[in-house]
Each structure stands twice: as structure tokens, then as C-alpha cells.
């Protein structure tokens, strides 16, 4: 279980997250929902220690992550696939993937078999630069980099944003597979409600930096979506 208890988070003097308390069960997909600018990305960044300052507790089992620097949180088993993917365009696909492996605690610096199985196209093009890939392929690369860390929890920030529809389905099925077949815990920021209903077991709805609704996905009503997500 990953637990946020009374978490507040700040960029400089801007107070963005307000008293967030949330339980993320192991082995499930939890979708983080809400309008633009409501703090979903900030929630993921706070979990990784990437905002300027935060208060409150973030526990992974019995460890308090909130006191750890970002690299220690990565080594604790949390891998982050940021919005916009942030691959390094001048690095080869191989080296982009291997960057994730530096978060491993067993010293292995290799592309895991799982990545080879999920992303045959990347494996066939390991020596090409990441920058030549399409948006959807770069998203796959960012997921591959996260998996190279051998994580327990993967954070995905709008993985389908700006991606051509043919690849969206591929990425969706990889996300579901990571959870259903490999047991990964997934924290997913996502705007596509039909996909959320298919993939996630739980959700948290955010509004103005607060979690206003959370629970099993069956509780996510159309009315709730309309109230908190319609623009
Ligand atoms: N680096 C930053 N410095 C100052 N304020 C920031 C910074 N990043 C985000 N914010 C502010 O924090 C608030 C929450 O932003 P955040 O990106 O977490 O929202 P979001 O729900 O993920 O939205 P989106 O769907 O647009 O990504 C917004 O008001 C935003 O302007």
C-alpha cells in the first residue's frame, strides 16, 4: 500500500496540493482524474520529490518516502513516466532505456526481457536516436525506460496525450497488461474516461489541489465526471 497522509505541496510560494490523504492499493490501477491545472501532475511530482517543498507523510509499506531524495524514491521501486515523456533525443534508444536501469538496486544495467517482449520495434532499432521516433514510439520508450528500473509502482502522466489513435490502443493494452499480468501497481493520470473505466480498479478525483472523491471505479458516476471534469 502507498499512502498519502495530509500531504501539502508547493512550488516556491504557490501552495498547490492541500491536505491530500489517499490510499493506493498494491497491484491495482488507480486513476487520478480532474480538470486541467487541478494538481494531478503535482501529485505525481510530489510522490517523486520533484516539487519545491512538501509536507505530510508519503508511505510505501512502512517506509516514509517524503524524507527521501528523488533517487532513493526511485530505488524504492517507483518509476515515473512524465507528461511529455522527456526522453533524451540525442541518446540512442538503448541508452534512453538503460537510464532507467540506474534506479535498480541489484546493479544490473541491462534491458530486461519484459521490455524486449513488449516493445519489439524499439529492440529492432536500439542504435537509432530517440529523437527520430514518433510521439507514440517515444511514449513506448518512456515506458520502457521506467520498466528498466524493475519498479513496483509505475506513474503514468497522460500517456495517450498527443498520440495517434492507432498507437493509443497499443499503449492502453500495455498498461492493462502491466497490471493484470505482471501485477504492477499503476498510478495513471488520464482524461479518457472510457479507458479509465476499462482499465482502473480505483480512482481519485481532484479539484483545486484537493482529492474530492475516491473509491472503487464502480463509484465513478457520469454525474461525478460531469461535475468535476466538464469545462
Ligand atoms: N513549476 C511550477 N511552478 C509554479 N506553479 C506550477 C508549476 N507547475 C504547475 N504549477 C501550477 O500548479 C497547478 C497544478 O498544476 P498541475 O500541472 O499539477 O495540474 P494538472 O491537473 O496535472 O493539469 P494538466 O492536466 O494541465 O497537466 C496549476 O495551477 C499550475 O499552474
The description of the largest β-sheet is: 6 strands, mixed
Major sheet: arrangement of strands:
6-7-8-3-9-10
Q: What is the CA-based Rg, rounded?
A: 17 Å
Beta-strand residue fraction? 25-35%
Structural class: alpha/beta
Record keyword descriptors for this entry.
alpha/beta, 34% helix, 27% strand, four-stranded antiparallel β-sheet, Rossmann fold, 231 residues, six-stranded mixed β-sheet, binds adenosine-5'-triphosphate
Q: In short, what is this structure?
A:
The chain is of the alpha/beta class. It contains nine helices and ten strands.
Write the topology of this structure:
Elements: E1 2-11, E2 14-24, E3 29-33, H1 40-48, E4 53-60, E5 63-64, H2 70-75, E6 78-81, H3 93-101, H4 113-118, H5 120-124, H6 135-147, E7 153-157, H7 165-180, E8 185-189, H8 193-199, E9 202-207, E10 210-216, H9 222-229
Parallel strand pairs: 3-8, 3-9, 6-7, 7-8
Antiparallel strand pairs: 1-2, 1-4, 4-5, 9-10
Helix pairs in contact: 3-6
The structure holds adenosine-5'-triphosphate (ATP).
Adenosine-5'-triphosphate binds at residues 11, 14, 16, 34, 36-42, 83.
Organism: Rhodopseudomonas telluris
Domain ABC transporter: 2-231
GO molecular function: ATP binding
Amino acid at each position: 500500500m502507498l499512502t498519502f497522509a495530509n500531504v501539502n505541496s508547493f512550488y516556491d510560494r504557490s501552495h498547490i496540493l492541500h491536505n491530500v490523504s489517499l490510499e493506493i492499493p498494491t497491484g491495482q490501477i488507480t486513476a487520478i482524474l480532474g480538470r486541467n491545472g487541478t494538481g494531478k501532475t503535482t501529485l505525481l511530482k510530489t510522490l517523486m520529490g520533484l516539487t519545491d517543498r512538501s509536507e505530510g507523510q508519503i508511505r510505501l509499506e512502512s517506509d516514509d518516502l517524503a524524507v527521501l531524495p528523488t533517487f532513493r524514491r526511485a530505488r524504492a521501486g517507483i518509476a515515473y513516466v512524465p507528461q511529455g515523456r522527456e526522453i533524451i533525443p540525442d541518446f540512442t534508444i538503448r541508452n534512453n532505456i538503460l537510464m532507467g536501469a540506474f534506479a535498480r538496486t541489484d546493479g544490473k544495467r541491462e534491458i530486461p526481457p519484459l521490455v524486449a517482449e513488449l516493445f519489439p520495434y524499439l529492440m529492432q532499432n536500439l542504435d537509432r536516436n530517440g529523437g527520430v521516433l514518433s510521439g507514440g514510439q517515444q511514449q513506448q520508450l518512456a515506458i520502457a525506460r521506467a520498466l528498466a528500473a524493475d519498479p513496483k509502482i509505475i506513474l503514468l502522466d497522460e500517456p495517450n496525450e498527443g498520440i495517434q489513435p492507432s498507437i493509443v490502443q497499443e499503449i492502453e493494452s500495455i498498461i492493462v497488461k502491466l497490471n493484470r499480468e505482471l501485477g504492477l501497481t499503476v498510478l495513471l493520470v488520464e482524461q479518457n474516461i472510457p479507458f479509465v473505466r476499462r482499465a482502473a480498479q480505483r480512482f481519485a478525483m481532484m479539484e483545486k489541489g484537493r482529492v474530492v472523491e475516491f473509491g472503487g471505479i464502480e463509484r465513478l458516476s457520469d454525474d461525478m465526471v460531469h461535475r468535476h471534469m466538464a469545462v
